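Internal ticket #5521
Category: modeling
Description: The requester needs a full-assembly model to guide mutagenesis choices. All entity lines are attached below as received. Residue total reported by intake: 890.
Assigned to: D.W.
Attached entities:
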Amino acid sequence: MENLTTKYNFEEIEAKYYNLWLKQGYFHATKDTDKKPFVIVIPPPNITGILHMGHALNNTIQDILIRYKKMSGFESLWMPGTDHAGIATQNVVERKITGDGLSRHVLGREKFLEKVWQWRQEYGSTIIRQLKRLGCACDWSRERFTLDAGYSNAVLDVFVNLYKKGLIYQGNYIINWCPRCQTALSNEEAPHKDMDGFLYYIRYPLKDSNEHIVVATTRPETMLGDTAVAVNPKDKRYKKIIGKTVILPLMNRQILIIKDDFVDPRFGTGAVKVTPAHDPNDYALGKRHGLEFVNIMHPDATLNENALDYAGQDRFKARAAIIEDLKERGLLLKVEAHKYAVGHCYRCHTIIEPYLSRQWFVKMKPLSLAAKKVVKDGKVKFYPSRWTKVYLNWMENIQDWCISRQIWWGHRLPVYYCKNCYKPDNTEEDVRQSGVIVAKTRPARCPDCGKADIVQDEDVLDTWFSSWLWPFATFGWPDKKVSEEDLKYFYPTSVLVTAQEIIFFWVARMIMAGLEFMQDIPFKDVYIHGTVRDKTGKKMSKSLGNIIDPLDIIKEYGTDALRFSLISITAMGQDVYLAKDKFELGRNFSNKIWNAARFILMNLDTKQTEGDLCIFYKQTKLSLADAWVLSRFYSTLKALNQALNNYRFNEAAGLLYEFFWHEFCDWYIELAKLNIKERNTQFVLYKILEKTLRALHPFMPFITEEIWQKLNPEAGSIMQKTWPHVQENLIDRVLEKKMTMLKEVIITIRNLRSKNNIKPKDMVEVSILAEDKKKRGILKDTQSYIEKLARVSKIAFLEVPVSFDGVSCDVASGCSIYLHINFDAAAENERIEHEINQITSNIKRKEELLKNSAFIAKAPVPVVEKENKALAELKADLKKLEAIKYAVKK
RNA sequence: GGGCGAUUAGCUCAGUUGGUUAGAGCGUUGCGUUCACAUCGCAAAAGUCGGAGGUUCGAGUCCUCUAUCGCCCACCA
């Protein structure tokens, strides 16, 4: 058996094994009807992505599950891939070619797309390489990309399918428009942020009158597109002037004062300027009242010719200019500070413009019904469960999904127009319009007029319109030949692991798509982990400069340390505030594991480690330490299984940490040193290490593999091994209690040594009074343990109280412990007095509790019994302490 | 305007169905090179569990109210 290097060189080890696992095909999963499948589809990272802590956490969790289930006998499949990330990628490449003095418009669509593919070739798999660095056991032979041919086919298929069902339509609406990206966005892509703004009060003069009506607005520049002023019909202040005409300042346009219940008389002046082409509410008002829709902006948010003198100006410059002009004319009454929520582009953070345009939409209400039901019925479960409510609330208030994007990188709409007979109108939801052909392939001629002059829609689909098919399109759906077998076996998938930010974007929509196209849920569980933030609670982002780069941590501490640290500090669904020093936890633990293994390997004799544990257990009389560590291992394993099955990862990590470090290393290995050469010790040391490595492997794949290989040079990879089986018969609570007593006695002696300033190298003599025969027996049997771990040279066991001169004493587990040393009698007395006081007050509390008839009557019997027993023990301890006090005084 | 989360030791956080005297890591203090590990060992100090009520024999845990911080959703211009 070869030993480990003195120092744990994680860099070398990590480089060694990932490729080996890959070469051996350990990550590959295929249909195997003898096994149950366990499947996770990766949340496909954007091809523009680089690994951040969120990814590191997200993928570590998935990897733990995948490896755990694989070892547990499941056919474990982790489906990997990347997302083309329409707007994000287009932005990146555009920025790049701008640097080269080009623009996409100069290049043209085809050439530009070539550049993007080129870019993808070069940089698009950065994140994949980084996931490999993290140790992810993805089945790379199945890697998918949302713009691959097969996948694109699925996307187009779905579009045509939904169009035929009447669930996709084209229509004119106010949508969220990003003036910088120059595309429409869905509601989810335009999150609102609170901003400090102003409420401007503007006078609108009444026609043929000296009077005026005052309107309040946060966006004065939109007044150029006003086509009415609205008041509440019940508002007494304005009753007289409803129906009158006002002159729109700066534009000199005549517009009407209309009434509508929508207007809140308590807000502002109770009079609203109506701009139907630039505000969703005003749009609805405009529709109700048949108002004119005046668009005053170009797509880049500069004002257009409808803005007359302001044409050409940027929207915010125009705002300032308009305010100045109104002021000059005495039409600006006042300005108040005002907080309001404004939509921002989720890709470039530019302020969204509500913009009237013709776009494609998915009707969501019909899709949401089944998606609501499966969650309500518990067929899809959220962990933690509170997200259920968030999900259902969104489903309840669902709005149609704008899916067309005015960019080039993505799936181009399978929509064709006949130049001859297509005439876009202003309708909403024109499900069928002549000259519109929706088909996966380009039609030869127009079915309405028969002419062949046909053009394809310029737009592409929302990236999420492809992502929502991920759990089944990755298997090759809808191509039956490719996907049928796999889907039957692997679908629905087992669990989706993701962050809260994309519940609406992705999780909710996948559930809808799964139910609509597969007639089944896409996954059974949804585990939502927290967001990784910096230590002040801010999201980590490049612009804030507060990023802790996982790759830096990997370089400095190692992958396993990164993984174990992250998992340890992430309680279910709770955000994690991260600082670099948190990773020391994992680094130190790696170091501990390494050194413990090194010690064991250093002392292990291979011949002594062979055999079956259960048979060995039955046939051998084990020492307390041996039986104890086995019992503790299996108790830990049992709890570990439970924690993993309930997605309690921090608890799982904590259990392993506690067992390995503070039980196995601190106690068992120290005790094992006493008889390290003996068969039993050798066997147990080997078995515990070997099994613990397996249980640790999903968390720390590299270090466990390296140690495994050295421990079992012939046994192959740890990845091929099974998860340890819980041996219930080896779990022995009584025995664990015995060990607890022994530990208490040892700790008490150490404590007395420390209090009396005895140097670690100095040996002491002790007497132990154990009136209880059983206890005395245990302590006598483990005398050598006490001597070794408490540095004791001689122990006298007493059956009855004896008084000593010159001893330092204490009570532990019902035994009195006397240290025969020179000591400070005054200090000793004070300490014992203090202990007596403490124990007396505890006894009092317990006596009162047990005198309480309500407690006796209503508390369950075992609880009362436990209290009684505890009281008896306390009383015995008190008696001993008093005896000790007496002894000391003498 | 709704919804959610957090509030526990100096710091960062655990605490599953209510059950002895509330835990960990880091930090602090004291001692320590007994050769697996100083990325270590041994020991210690440290908390009226945000506040107020309530339910209960019993509350960090359940209920109500409340304070502070944070997040999400929502068309008050």
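Resolution: model delivered.
Comment from assignee: DSSP finds 29 helices and 29 strands in chain A.
Ticket closed.
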